[in-house]
Every structure is written in C-alpha cells, then in structure tokens.
Structure to design on (1380 residues):
C-alpha cells in the first residue's frame, strides 16, 4: 500500500546499507573507537564549518534529547521548550525521568518567539522567590519543528542572542535537520546552525539511516566524560560502527543533503497535488511533512488506499492528517497519490 | 590484524545482513509494530517453549538491564547481584541511575551460590532494622557470567527455588546466552531458562546481530505499559524493524544456535592451542571466552600481532587476558593463532 | 515591626510548644514508633471520620508532595496540576526530581475546573499516539489554592467523580487546610475531604506547628513499605516524636480548627480594613491570605512599617501584594494595620 | 523504664528547648533567612576555626548525606564508602535514589584504611575499561563510625592526602561528631576536621537537638544555588528558625561540646560497669555507644528492665547489643544499670 505515514517507514538509503555490508566483516574496536566513527566525525566537523566541534553518536532522538539535556543542565536547572516541543509532549517524560523540569512557553506554529523567551527569562529573574523555582538553564528548539516549520536566520539569531545574554546554551533538535536545511524557505546553512547554537544534532533515523543521531557540541562544551554518562543512560552501543559507518556514508559526497533535497522536492509536488485537489492546509509547512485537513468521511475512504499519519482532531467533522516524504518516496508514489485523491474526492 | 578482542568486533552475521537488505524498501509501521517484530516474537516464544511469553526488543545490554530492573523493582527494592556482576561493575552505574541499589553478594567464578543467596535473604529479614535498608527485590545473574562460566541445571534450579520462596523475580542477563546454551558443559535448554527464570534476555549484539537484545518475560509479568516506560528511558527505536528483522533472521532455521555452536567450537580449538602452548588458564571457561595468564613480556610481543582483551593484572609480572570467538571467527584465524603462539613462546 | 508576611513567620502555637516541653524528657522509640504519633494518628482518623485512614507524618509541604506523588504514581504516569499549582511552579522541580512529569492544565483563580480536567483526560485517551506521552496518573489540587481560593463541595465532587471514572487518585495538598475549612465560604467538612479525595495532607507548618504535615491515605491505599520509601527520600525523622507530639496537641480539643478559625477572623477584619481604605483586591480570597493591589509608591511607604509578601507585578505602577494571618496574629496587629493604612493613604 | 536504646530517644537539651520557647513569638523570615540561622552559622564558623566556611542547615542525617553527595558529585561519579558505612547499608538506598552509586570498600572496625583507599583508586585508574565504570568522585567516612570508633589524626590525614592527590572531596558524616571529638581517645579538634575534610556535618539530632544537622563546606565549595537544590529534594524547612535557633543554642557557651562530654563520661562509666560485670565487648568503642556480647538468655532477662539496641547475632547463643548514652543520661541511670546487671548475672 502507498505509504506517506512517516519519514522512518522504510529502512536505510541504499548507499548507507551498501557501506554497512562492505565494512561488515572488518574486525573493529567497539564503543565508537573505530575509524569509521572518527572519519564520520571529521566529515561532520567539515560540513559544519566548525573544526573544533565535538561530535558524538547516539541511537535515537528521544535518547539524544534526554542525554544532551541531562548532561548539560546543572542540578537546579530546567529546560525551556515550546508547549508543542517534542520533549514536552511526545517523549513519555524522558527529560523529567532525568530529574529535570521542562519549562513550557507558548509557541507560534511550533516555534518559540524571541519576545516570548525574553519575557519568560526577565520575569523569572524579576520574581523575588525565584530561588524556589526551577532555574531556566537551557533553551530547546527543534528545526524543523513538530509542525514542519523552520526558524529564519533572523529568528534563530534573536534566540541565540538571548541565550548568550543569559549564558544558557541553545540546543537545537535536528531529528529532521536535513529537511529544514534543504527547504526552499530556508535562509540558513549548516554552518549557521553550528554558529548560532551551542549544541544540536543531525538526525539520521529520519534522513536515510537505520538509526542514529549525530550530536554536535559546537563550543568546546561537551560534558566531561561524556561516554561514561552515555553508558550510564544505557545509550552506548557496543558495535558503535553501526553509527559510524552510516554517518560516514551520509556525509560522503553530500548524500545527507541529497536525500533531504529529494524528500523536499517530493513534498513540494505533494503540496501542489493537495492544492490542486483543493484540500485545505492546516498550516504552511515548507519541509517534508504536509499537514492537511480532511473531512472525516474522506479520511476514512483515503485510509483504505494510502497510509498517512493522524495528527489531531480539527472539529467534529474534520481531522488534521500528516503526509511525510523521505528518501524512499518516488515520483511514482506522488503520481499514485494524485490519482487516489481524484478518486476519493 | 588477527582479532580475538571481543565477540562484537565484526558486524552482523551475513544471513542477518541479507534479511535487512531484502526488507529494506518495504514501508512498515514504526516503534516495533511491524510484522517482522511480530514474527520474531512468535519464533522466540516457540524456541523458548513458552507460548505465553511476552517478548520485547531493546537495543543493547546495559539498556536492557536498566530497563528491566527499573520497571520490575518496586520503589523500596534493589537488585541482588554478584560483586562481579556486569550491572555492578561495568555499566557506569546505570541501575543506580534509575534510583535503585545493586545489593552485592560474593561470587564463585562469577556465579552466585544458592547458599550465599539464601543466607543473604535470611539475614536481611532477620535484621530488626531492615525497613531502613533496601529490600531485596530481584536477583540478577548472567549466563554465561562475566567469567564465561555457566550455571548447571541444579544450580539454576536452586536459585530459582529461593527466588520463588521469597517471591522475587529471577532475572537472567543473556547477553551471551547462545554461547552458554551451546557449550559442551551445558545441561540446560532454552526452555529450561524460560521455566526457571522470570525474565531473561537473548543477546543479539554479541551473537550475530548489529545490535539488539530480546527480553523475554516468561510469567505474564511484563510491566504494564512497558512501551511507554521504554520510551521514557530513551530506549524505543523508531525503526523497530531493525530489531525485528534481525531477530527474525536469528530465529529462522536455528541460526542463533548455529552461530553460537560455531563460536564454541572455535573456542574449544583455541583452548586446545593454549593447552598445547602450555599457557595457564585463569579459570576454566566452557564458553566462547577464554581467559589465560600471560607473562607481561609475552603479552607485549603477542599484542603486536593479535588483538585480545586485557582482563586484569595477575601479579607484577603476569596479566590475565581474554580471547573471544564469535560468528566471524574462522578456522584460519585459529590456525594463525597457533602459529603466532609458537613464534611468541 | 508589624508582620503579615506569611503564616509561617512565628514559631509554634503555645499549646503545641507546651506539649513538646512536657514530653521532652521521656525516652521514646524513634522513627515514629512512639505513642504520641499513634495517638495523633488516632485523633486524626476520628477528626476525618475515616477509621480506616492511614496517617503518616512528614516534615514539610514540598517533601509531602514529592513523597506522596512519587510513591503513588506508576512509572509511566505523571500528575495533573493547575499551571499555578504549587508543585508546578514553586517547588524547584521536586516532582520532576523523582522522575515524573507535572502535566499542566489551565486554572481559574487557582482552581482546576471539572470541564477542563474532563477534556484533558478525554483528549489524552483520544490521541492515537498517547503511549508516547506521559499517562495522567493522578490529579493534584490544593485547598486552599495558591490564591487563597477554595473548591465548593460541588466542584470537589465533580473532580472526584472524574478521577474515579478514570481510576486515578485525587490528591489534595492541604498545607493550609484549616484555613480553607474554617472559611465562611466553606461548605465542606474534613470528613468530606477524606471522602472525596484519595489522599490529602493536613498542614501543620502553616497552622501552628514548628514543622510537620499529616498525610492521610483514605482508601487503604498507602503505598507498600511506605516508611522505607520515606527513608529513601531522606524524609524520615529520627525523633519522630517531634511530629507526633505536635499533631497530638493540634488535634486535642479542636486546637487545629481553633487556630484556623482565629486566623480567618483576623483575615476578615483585615479585609474589612482594606475595603475601608478602598484598596482594590486582586481577587476574592475567603481564606487567611488577602491579595491587594498597591500603587508602587504606596507599597514603598508601607514596606517601611509593615512586612507583607510580594506576589507579582500588576502593571507598571502597581503591584499585587499578599497579607497573611496566622495563629499569632492579634487584634492589636489588625488595629495597628488600620492606623498604618490611614497614615499611608 | 531505663533506656539506653539510642542517643535520640529523648527530646532536646533543656537549654535548646528554652531558646525555642524564648524566640517563639518573634516574627521572622522563613527558609533560613532569619538572624538566628545567621548567628548560628557565624558561631559554627568560629568553632571550626574556618572563617570562610559555608554553613547550611538540614533536618536529618540521611537527608544531609543524600543532599551533600548528590549535589557535589558529577554525573559520572559515585561515592566511596566502607561496606559498613551508613549510606551503604542503612539509608534505604537514599544515595542511589539520587542516581549515584555507592562504591563499597572493605573496612576495619568501621573505618576505611588509607592503604585500602589508595589501592581502590589506583586499581580503578589502572583498569583500561574504567570509562565503563562509575568514577570515584568522593570519599564518605563517618566520625565516629557506625561502630563507635574514631579516626586518629594520622589516619584522617592520610585519607585527606589521598583525596587531594586524586582531587576528590572527603566528606565526613558527623551525625555523632561531638561524641567523637569529646572522646578521651580523640587526638583531633573541630578545626582539624574542618581542615582535613572538604565538607562535613555537625550532627544535632543525636547531640541535643530535636532535629537538624549543620553542613559545613570548608573549601568555598558549596554547590551553586544550593538552596534551590535543597528545595528540589524536599529538604528546605519553611520555619528555618527551628534549625537556626537550636544550633545557635548548641554553639553558645560550648553547649554542644558539654553535651558530648557528658555523654562520653556516662559511656565511660557504663563501660566500667560492663567490665566489672565481666561482659565481653564486641569491639573497643571510645565513644558514646558501647557494644557488648550477651548470652541470649541474659539478653532476654535484661530486656524486661532496660531498653537497648539489637546490633547483630554473634553466634547461636549470643547476641551483640548496643547501649548508648546522650544528653539526658544521668548518673542515676548508670547506677540503676549497675544494679540491674548485678541482678541479671
């Protein structure tokens, strides 16, 4: 069945899988001490234009968020996130499990606005009782956001400036980073992300890998004895090569960006089909996830022939649904979707 | 270079990798809801002779230990382990990170003796102040142990009986389970393990997979909403297929046992070579890890031509080292080792 | 200087202190096993009209909240609270420190409305991805709330009904319980609180004790081996008598209610003075805390002669301040305040 | 009934209680911001000969241990303690609850020997896999120990030197500090403790207070925003005066030392009586706790007329019991014990 359910519904990009097979028989040291990890790190440092970056591989997104946040926060601190931030609503309380609070702020289309952040911090420090409250110790954003939206250079710079003024790190969850950077709406490059944030990760799971996220500490700020902290959280892979080889492949000849660009193109064509079919958009997403509003009947009919994601109830008779593209989405899939939509009108 | 460094120094068994490639393009639901996970679970239930078993896949051993222990213990309980137990010394405090104490007991060749366990529990409940102490809420053993030794049926039955008498679960860490079951010294079958323990896991990482451990709850005792608890610990894989496909392959046509048997055969040949070379054994391991004592000079010479594991200092002039076999160890490797040992005498 | 800063700014009610002195020399068992603790528990059970209640003493409010919530929640659950709930904003993340999320809902004058709670729970279970989210496992309310407001019998019954429908406990933080029960606006009795909630605590610290909160589990639902869990959280007092003797005194001859009634009377007189002085109320509090809006100049003048609490900025030129009464507030204090307000007009 | 059950079986020393009564009506700021706390801190700094010491009050011993250890350790570190250390066996896993491991080392009469510590640290860093293990991040000792024994100046200096060489703090649990310092066997002064350790606490609960431990950070090493961390652990007292007033009293005119000296004198007389009665000592304790071995029959007879502590089974027919003295032990009590022992021979 046609599937736009998610960007992690197929395996790895063939080039990634090929490298896993080619290197499979080599005996290598475990726990990330193999040359593929080292090579991948070097390529990522280059791609980030940040030679001093410290790169670490983790298995998944929720894990990366929890590990990064809990090792960077101090005991008395929490992390600021948009109410809709992934860590706030969809990670089963993984940050709180580490003993730290997520400090909710309002969002706009999934983004934290600079003015909102500024006010939150100012109010916090103006409160005479703030020592009884969780200190704001980090700002978490995602790029693209859960709504598929992206920060402009101006917006990201503004957040970055505020974080620096308060001396707290800005952490960017890049589970879908490629899809943000390759969006036509994007006015940022990877090097800008590295410059404006203090730590971020380059998502592999949703951009062509079987698993894996590359965490990049950009300010010589990797927590001390990070590997031990990773192990302590059950997040250290014995066969670290699984991550090293994949990221080495993704950052060879620009594959990561190529995969991302492809998915964006497919998403743009898909969006065109939705417009053509006069299906209303829930919001304007410039990335690989498109959110549309379907009549419930229409949704039920469609469901029988194509897989997509349920997002949320819109009203009694309508539902917001999500269609995602990825490395494996083909022109054929898009065409098939066009046909389907015609039938299901 | 010749490598007997560990049983996780090469990638996946070719048959496992092949299945990953064959299924790679199929769009599948995430988070373990795919048919390969289901199929693998069914095969594991059969292999365990335990149709009611609840099987869950996790990524690695330390993670499996921490997740199982912390979701099964009650607030006021800790887990009993041998002083040499992996969770006690070599997991960076992952159990304690979940808020639970590891209660150390003495070991013999890495094993907990029934008499020792019995006394520990009796003494605990005899202490009038025991409510100020951590309750013993689970027993953790590994099979094979960190020293490559295995429990006999009699020994495991004795531990199992004590646990039942005290109504606490017996948890068996089977990171290298296959190597125990295929050992010539083994008088147990997988179905016995399932019967005698309350929960155990079948290690994939060290027995032919890229990653993955299959946790088996054998007494309808899987913790409620386990998936949410797994997510909360950052241990839920988006592309759960990576685990499902691998375990499906490992439990098709007995591959898991075949891999294990092969490694045992290689280890037995290796042991014969060590005996031939008159190298003293540190202890008698019937599994895929062989521990020998080398003179430091000899060790330095060998190191230049073969990779092996440092285990511990024996005395001022000797060191205990570990040689491990796995799916990828060949007869040629063993022969090469024989030649090397001759040279390095 | 005149002080209406808080209801914990003086020591213990003289009758409480007297009992501490009278019993001081008696040798007694530690950790709450003394007869005063037992006697106090029995009196509290009677006062609650709940003979099967299980009563436990803890030292302070944040501690009581964290201990109760973390021992009653299951691993995958969090606690619902109003955004303004004390656990959400003013306890330095003590609940999150135990590994559980506080699930914020909107409030009205510090209270959770039944309709809001109902919708939150219904939406949660309607979400197809809810297993990736923190399960709502308890509802936390305070009585009186942080704004000094109280739930009516109807409101509390509605919350209680919803909790029962979802089989989650309703937990009432009664740090200032007496001031709620003795309010003229109150249409509930202590026995109603015991009936409608699953667990609550009777605040001592703010109602005449030096320290101490009496947690009441009303449905035979005290967590197993609670004492060990309390010890594990560093919350077990060696000289448990300190709590037992104080609560024994507070629940002898209705002292707890007498203290509370006195503070309410003082608060009512204070409110009359504020009305007389035409000082606008921030909200209508029927309990021992009164919130008024002062011009900043006026506030500065007043500050020199009377202590009160800063609550929050109202606008550029006004501030919300809090005046609290307690066991030690006298008619003389109220008169002095009247005079002061006249001068400071 | 005659009671030597513990040193916390009676209330506060009368002079302490008197000060609580005298200051009871004064309106004071909460959370430790009152002048009595400040005054007590100043007196403690003086008594410690350490003007730069940072003093913080906590409620109890287990709490103090957990708060200090968890705020001073880094994420990847654990705390070294003797197997018999209070944190290791008798605090219900309070340290592990904070996510940190207690690293057991062997003891001699409850003390950690310098050679043992040295070897433990050297072995740890010699292990090539030590990054997979918990880093030793602090050394915990108690003074007196759980066995009533005390470190000599030489012994404590040796431990201190090792800690400094490894740059890890030495933490001394002084729940019974006074009884150590006032022992005839003691060759240390409070100022030496302050100098040789990095943090320690002066126990109040067991030395004349109703509750309270004064934590002393001696090297300008109080964790940042300590008050917030204390609150986060539910350990912040609203009426902080309760601790401030008591410690102010204890450190006025040397009361703390006077109480301790008195208990030591009583213990010495008690020991003489035991010798006279030819009761064998379990070990030689120079402090306020005496451990003797009783025949089980004799113990049963004694139990009817005097309360003492059960320590541990000695053999089938003998038991180790503990007799403790405190501020409230009188010469009359000692005489009564002498008579009793004569009768019970």
């Amino acid at each position: 069945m046609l599937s736009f359910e998610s960007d992690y519904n197929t395996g790895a990009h063939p080039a990634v899988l090929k490298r896993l097979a080619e290197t499979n028989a080599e005996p290598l040291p475990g726990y990330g001490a193999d040359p593929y990890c080292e090579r991948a790190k070097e390529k990522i440092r280059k791609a980030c234009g940040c030679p001093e970056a410290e790169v670490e591989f983790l298995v998944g997104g929720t894990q990366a968020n929890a590990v990064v946040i809990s090792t960077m926060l101090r005991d008395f601190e929490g992390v600021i996130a948009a109410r809709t931030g992934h860590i706030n609503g969809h990670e089963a309380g993984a940050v709180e499990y580490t003993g730290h609070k997520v400090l909710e702020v309002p969002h706009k289309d999934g983004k934290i606005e600079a003015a909102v952040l500024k006010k939150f911090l100012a109010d916090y420090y103006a409160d005479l009782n703030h020592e009884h409250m969780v200190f704001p110790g980090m700002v978490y954003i995602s790029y693209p956001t859960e709504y598929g939206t992206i920060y402009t250079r101006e917006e990201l710079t503004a957040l970055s400036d505020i974080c620096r003024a308060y001396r707290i790190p800005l952490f960017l969850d890049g589970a879908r980073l490629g899809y943000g950077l390759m969006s036509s709406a994007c006015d940022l490059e990877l090097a800008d992300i590295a410059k404006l944030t203090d730590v971020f990760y380059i998502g592999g799971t949703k951009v062509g890998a079987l698993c894996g996220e590359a965490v990049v500490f950009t300010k010589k700020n990797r927590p001390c004895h990070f590997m031990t902290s990773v192990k302590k959280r059950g997040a250290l892979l014995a066969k670290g090569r699984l991550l090293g080889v994949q990221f080495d492949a993704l950052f060879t000849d620009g594959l990561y960006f190529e995969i991302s660009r492809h998915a964006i193109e497919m998403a743009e064509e898909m969006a065109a089909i939705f417009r053509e079919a006069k299906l209303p958009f829930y919001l304007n997403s410039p990335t690989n996830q498109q959110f549309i509003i379907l009549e419930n009947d229409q949704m039920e009919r469609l469901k029988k022939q194509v897989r997509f994601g349920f997002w949320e109830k819109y009203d009694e008779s309508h539902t917001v649904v999500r269609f995602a593209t990825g490395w494996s989405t083909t022109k054929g899939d898009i065409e098939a979707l066009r046909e389907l939509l015609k039938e299901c009108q």
